[in-house]
Amino acid sequence: MAPTVTESRPHTLFSFGTLLDPRVQTALFGRPVPSSPASLAGHATRPLTITDPSVIATSGQEVHLTLERRIGSTVEGGVLHLTDRELAAADDYEVDDYVRRRVLLSSGESAWAYLDARPLRPAARMVIAGDSIAYGRCDPRGGWAARLAAGHIARNEAEHRVFNLAIPGSTLTDVREQTPALLGPRHPDTILLAAGINDSAVPLAAPDPAQDGLSCLGDNLAALAAMALSHNARLVVAGPAWLDETRTGDYEGLCFTRDRALALRESMRTWCAEHHIDYLDLWEPLRDRADLLVDGLHPDAEGHRLLHGHLEAIGR
């Protein structure tokens, strides 16, 4: 019996910089690769200084370009048609300042592109979708989301916007069902999804395994990722914050536990890594800080301040 031959899948990669150079392609892939002109709307470029000697040697340039969001702007470039091996080589070539994510080209087709590894740094118009913690419950200043909005808008009052669509009690299913109709007039380029802790809750009265929010986590995240891509927006998933289960044993008929929250955290992180979606971990800032939780679940003002500082540090 003849051995099974594994066929390489075709990949499309949008580039606007050194990867379009045939000399770079030959150095990386062993050949100039098929390509076609393409453009990416809603984006502009800015310079990025490279320090990796091998990348500088291959490209011959110390300054590359990276993408940022800007309504009304378009980046002209090309789409490279790559094999699995060639896409892996492109991944190895890009420095840690970049990550590979899906974008929607001006043609309406989706393709890979290398974006800023800090997902909130290139954003202009952000939508926050989430639950009571993203809503800012228990903080008169509006929680970490309000602090994030204030800083983001202050950086560029003319072009930066933040729309907080978080609703207390929301699950990922709720966000999936309610958010799409609200996105159009807001023209988001980044969707910060800060929900899921309610999916980890278990009803105290006769829990139904069929209603377990963790079991449909992947389906909900996939639907939300597709929704974001349809708006050419970048989905950024914020994981759950630490909770004090000694005070959440009976929370309005629900049971929140550390093990379930950790299962949610790990499932979200794994799914995002497998599907090239940005994940921002919010667990550590409040770990073992029960004094910063009003009811074991919701941070107080100081807790929200710490979460905001952590988001800024890892997202921007």
Automatic annotation (TrEMBL):
Name of the protein this chain belongs to: GDSL-type esterase/lipase family protein
Gene3D superfamilies: Gamma-glutamyl cyclotransferase-like, SGNH hydrolase
Domain Gamma-glutamylcyclotransferase AIG2-like stretches: 13-116
Domain SGNH hydrolase-type esterase: 130-306
Pfam families in the cross-refs: GGACT (PF06094), Lipase_GDSL_2 (PF13472)
